[in-house]
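new request in #modeling-help
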Amino acid sequence: MCGVFGVFGHKEAANLTYLGLYALQHRGEESVGIASFNGKQLSYQKGVGLVSDVFDTARLKKLKGYCAVGHNRYSTTGSSVAENIQPIMVNHRKAPVVVAHNGNFTNTYELHRALEKEGAIFHTTMDSELIIHLLAREKSDDLKEKLIRALSQIKGAYSLVMMLGDNLIAARDPRGYRPLCIGKLHNAYVVSSETCALDLIGARYVRDVAPGEIIKINSQGLQSIHTLQSSQHAYCIFEYIYFSRPDSNIFGHNVYQVRKDLGRNLAREFPVQCDFAMPIPDSGNYAAVGFIQEAELPFEWGMIRNHYVGRTFIQPSQITRDFRVKVKLNPISDVLKDKNIVIIEDSIVRGTTSKIRVKTLREAGAKQIHMRVSCPPIRYPCFYGIDFPTKKELVASSKTVEEVGRFIGLDSLCYLSLEGMLATMPHKPCEFCTACFTGNYLEKPKKGVKKNILELLRR
Amino acid sequence: MCGVFGVFGHKEAANLTYLGLYALQHRGEESVGIASFNGKQLSYQKGVGLVSDVFDTARLKKLKGYCAVGHNRYSTTGSSVAENIQPIMVNHRKAPVVVAHNGNFTNTYELHRALEKEGAIFHTTMDSELIIHLLAREKSDDLKEKLIRALSQIKGAYSLVMMLGDNLIAARDPRGYRPLCIGKLHNAYVVSSETCALDLIGARYVRDVAPGEIIKINSQGLQSIHTLQSSQHAYCIFEYIYFSRPDSNIFGHNVYQVRKDLGRNLAREFPVQCDFAMPIPDSGNYAAVGFIQEAELPFEWGMIRNHYVGRTFIQPSQITRDFRVKVKLNPISDVLKDKNIVIIEDSIVRGTTSKIRVKTLREAGAKQIHMRVSCPPIRYPCFYGIDFPTKKELVASSKTVEEVGRFIGLDSLCYLSLEGMLATMPHKPCEFCTACFTGNYLEKPKKGVKKNILELLRR
Amino acid sequence: MCGVFGVFGHKEAANLTYLGLYALQHRGEESVGIASFNGKQLSYQKGVGLVSDVFDTARLKKLKGYCAVGHNRYSTTGSSVAENIQPIMVNHRKAPVVVAHNGNFTNTYELHRALEKEGAIFHTTMDSELIIHLLAREKSDDLKEKLIRALSQIKGAYSLVMMLGDNLIAARDPRGYRPLCIGKLHNAYVVSSETCALDLIGARYVRDVAPGEIIKINSQGLQSIHTLQSSQHAYCIFEYIYFSRPDSNIFGHNVYQVRKDLGRNLAREFPVQCDFAMPIPDSGNYAAVGFIQEAELPFEWGMIRNHYVGRTFIQPSQITRDFRVKVKLNPISDVLKDKNIVIIEDSIVRGTTSKIRVKTLREAGAKQIHMRVSCPPIRYPCFYGIDFPTKKELVASSKTVEEVGRFIGLDSLCYLSLEGMLATMPHKPCEFCTACFTGNYLEKPKKGVKKNILELLRR
Amino acid sequence: MCGVFGVFGHKEAANLTYLGLYALQHRGEESVGIASFNGKQLSYQKGVGLVSDVFDTARLKKLKGYCAVGHNRYSTTGSSVAENIQPIMVNHRKAPVVVAHNGNFTNTYELHRALEKEGAIFHTTMDSELIIHLLAREKSDDLKEKLIRALSQIKGAYSLVMMLGDNLIAARDPRGYRPLCIGKLHNAYVVSSETCALDLIGARYVRDVAPGEIIKINSQGLQSIHTLQSSQHAYCIFEYIYFSRPDSNIFGHNVYQVRKDLGRNLAREFPVQCDFAMPIPDSGNYAAVGFIQEAELPFEWGMIRNHYVGRTFIQPSQITRDFRVKVKLNPISDVLKDKNIVIIEDSIVRGTTSKIRVKTLREAGAKQIHMRVSCPPIRYPCFYGIDFPTKKELVASSKTVEEVGRFIGLDSLCYLSLEGMLATMPHKPCEFCTACFTGNYLEKPKKGVKKNILELLRR
């Protein structure tokens, strides 16, 4: 997963992009980069780590100009971390080409093979690099034509922010898998994965980039230059469930309100008799509010979140017990002792962390422990940008709900139903991609998932 | 403020101390150090920054031995950061002397002057260094006698963890200003500022070090060697209000439960008609639970806390607006729009951050904004270890409650009464130091606060 | 200028390459890189700075395999330092392509323009990158054919060490501007710019790569696969005069012996009456030996070289006088006082350093100061790899010998004649490029020097 | 061994000290520090490594004021590197006390023990720290009295540069083991271990600090405040032989001229029939000039010194052969092949490096190899500051000259005689300490060498 951000027409373009990426940090923690342009010179700063690790005042000062593009990259595997930082940047025929991409293509293998045969040299293992080559091969000097021809060859998910010469380009794939919105700050235009980044810099939300839409922003203003056609939308429902920040509006609606409603529906579907309800902080905090309002259960903090857990934590090598999970949340014995409790969670992926949490709560004295999850069981991998573990590692892919509950060590476990989830959503069911719950993929890559393909292509 | 931690009798002493300091990080973010001893050689690692910044696997590996002492130091002013890292460590007469100190002395000036006249050379501007010199001057070879004579000369607040030769020493001043507890892990003894650090490493809480008590731990086990007498206890009430972690037990009681009760009393004292109640996350989260239970108001998340705010945040230099406060919490317009709300906070110090928060909530659409604070107005500085700003900067020191409310921009502001606060506490009122609220100091330094004194003494 | 080095068939390939580059450090101080291959995986380590700055034990350990290619890069201008480190490395059609290049092409502009039009994307401003693209465009699967076709398109100077799949390739342009030799260490083959690198690792010198020759080394051994034809050799005479190490043999002959002979001829052409002769250490040390033997003058150390001058030297910003030259050599007043001296130098480029040296010697008490230079005046830039300053900055380009002597502040200045220089050489005059002395270029780029071209091409 | 440097009365005091330490780098490569004072505030910068590693523009800028003291420290053993950087600096009774020391005390053990008994706390394992404590214990406010009393208690070798309040103090032990001189630059005074540092900054040499003399420099100018009496001088003769830079004047005379004379006497004492003479560069370069003038042998460079050897050199771990010696000097086969040669060296310590050099020369083809050394065999350790290896490691301590020659692999080996050495010296024999050659110590520590004592005292 990734976060993309761009600014055109502000003398602090790179500083605003830094702030935007800080707000979008949850979309990608592995690496970060910002490219900026002042009409003559392209500046670039990037690094492995969080926005706060990579950027300091000195580096920001080097990023001159009124136009900037930034990118947060999610954790991937392998040795290729440093070379896979985005935005990708090259100079081609004396003009800068900068690409920041959120999503994954599904025809990577076919495109890569064809281009390399013609002599194209690839420097990264990211599908995003294909865009650069597709654009470079187009002989036309017309920007619109070039973009339409290049993007038409790509299948899959992309929310793109690009700099082509003196233009900021925003584009979204025809199905609209990933969010992308436009804001305005004074005379400057801003493009961002989520609205929380607009909020931070004080930009006004204008509208979303429509699925399939290509937008050009330059000194003449904003222009929607084309919309690629598609029969069906496929908004990622997991953005609402888990991925986006609760204070963002995506696909036009507030994420926190959706999560609260999921919690409310969950309480209706699966009521429970308990001493109190508690969230796993902070992931369960939002559904929990809807849950307690509907269930009329007291709310308690049964576990306290350590404020410093975003920081590096060394697991001392000789100590056998793993403290990595425990350091994040500490149960309060005085609260839990001899109580029957229900835990609210937003989702379960591997189930291993939940298992440790439940064990810790039992050790702190909790009697009955029930869990309510505000989405259905996740059973299938994502080919459109969410870095789920492989199918094998998804606990619900091979276990029934009852088995998952036993695995975690619960007295009862209930997941919100698919219908219950879709009923809460602010769009029609057919507009969502729910493949991670149902396995119904609209398009699927021929040869496995992307990262494996490209790593293989290079060996 | 500071956190202290020590281990005796465990082959992973330094690793456990690392974990302990990680859990006590909130007590001091400026610098950190760990000294360890294997019976022959003393190892030492320290640095400026958080525990997670300073320690990595390689540094931890260098800390050998069964005994370790660690310290987290709170932010202070000036250029002296690097030389003022604790624990203080010297070799004296072939034996290691290691001191980790939480608290502040009130007779620093007198002691420093007298010792320097006799030829003592000071290397830091910390009052804690006095202990080293007082111990070195004692000619007796009897450890107990030495400790009693040295500590008897000191006035003020200290919770100490020390290594003297092959002994781990824990000591607490006769009034017991700061917490200090003892735990046990298998055959090892652990000393810690708070119990949350015992929880993390899985140690069993044994008891608190009593006010005035001096404890010696070595291969023969734990021995309480002496208790310095005092007429009156003076537990810091602000540890319950704000400073300690909610999942810790201090002075024998759970902090979260106390805060919840403070919130409950607050709702009783100052009820309010509103659409919903919301905390300022995370500081107000605990009192808010008691408040909503008593007030029977709906609970909402009106602001979302950014998970990455513990990280460095660069305020881009050219941008005039300050994002440092805004980056931490983002209001959700959809929740706040046209609503009357009450905010729950644990305390107000300068008032400047609250002012910005309220402004942000208004911009997000909130109509009426009320605030309820779960302690009385803070009006006086602390001489016993809490790094409050100077009296002038404490917003309540020169303003009435009404004026503070206007300053912050509230429709109404109410503080819990002194009586209401004391009534909630699990100890008798006379056992607390409440000087920051009342100005009633049991002992006061002759010449201003410590840090100024020592900085002056060196110039 | 640059140094290139490669090894095939040794399990310590990267370690040997590290040693080789350490020995070739004088050929390039700006940046360094090593790529190694173990048949499956390509490893790469690089950095800005000297070999000793960039490599440590940890980095060397990461370079696995029996085949390695390394490169030292000379100082160039501009911001492009980090991206212009060699060897250049890409993966193309699942095989590694690694290029290390010494020299400069003269048809860079034409090749770059043509390739970019066809969609090639350039990542550096080095002409060396062209080789990669020329190779990638060749559709043939035959390595020999591919290499001949690609290299035939290039004009100018190149001594190349490359890795193509599981082959180590060595190649030299048809005129043989730059040296390149082959050595053998047990069963392994080594390719190096100079023999001093073979000496260090204990490899036996086998022979030079012939001008125009393409050599393939793999598990089947060494094979000379083709020789590109050329009408005339053009060995760089400046390699003998100044650039190569005195302990190297290049173009088949020892550099120190040539320099000693140049000094001997210099003494014959321009005898001088003096108290003693002294070199400017260390550059003049070698010609000086021949000079004193022929001139029968006493030898003295009039200036002492600071052993630490290779190290960074900060010119304190507020001090107006520049210490950068003075810190290197300190005159000995006791030796120089009231003496008439002759200084031996290998060459004069800008003349500014010599001017400061002479001033320093005068201040230390020298009476008459004569200078004898063991090559003719340098008047023209080099297009084949030596980073001379621009013509304007070459002191002899616009001044007569007498004017240069006055500029430097000498009592007399004499340069060895072109004929005198060529007569000393171990090859026929027609086999050398002497363009920097004569302006007779065999081939010349259409549009200025390379670095300007490529920097322009990107803007 | 160490280098000391101080400036009073120049607004660039710290920058000049940086330059001075750069020139004195050969006296100590382990660590470096500079303290400066502007009348109000003391600034301090220090680090492990060479001057060029530790200081950059930013660090130099932080060193404000008209007075500065700097120190280069020689390599010592153990873990105590970072804490043993000089100058030592403390604040005592509101005034700065800064000490830079070259030499070693011989009554360290007695002083340390007595002071610690009285409660003094030591922070380093350097004998130099004793000075600080001796000064702090003096109750008198009179600077002169304080200095005389403190220094009178010390036995052994010291050349000191100190800052006491607003005074720069220079002092030398009564025997004058180590050099120390005074220079003047405009109105500023400069104190330095050697004159080469005065040369670099353009200061005029004024005179040496006399043995036993204490000098005070402040805004009133320079004043010689006292001279401690001594019966006999003991100038370190090894400073002339090896340690000082050849371009320095020490004890009033030029080092290069002394070394040239040693070479001349060596040729007289031990003539040899050979094809040519060659130095081991650079150590033998100076005696070689005198040797060839007297012996009338041709001079040749048989080995070439690598310019980069001051830099870190990694010995790749898996390669069995050690390249550390070989990387420094490469023999030239064309010069050495079938020749009888004589090597000139300044001294032999362990003999192991010479052994490798001779082996290398043989491999390069040399027939007979003779060696002439311009000082007698070194047989005894130094207690006054030269970090010789232990007696056991000194090759000549247990071997006859003939055995040493065989060990190294020579056809003949001759050392200059003690008489021959002393006859060349510009002072009377009785004024020198020659203990490393003769074992005649004027004063000797009771308990072994210093570094062992203090390391022991701390354990």
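bot summary: The mean pLDDT of chain A is 92.
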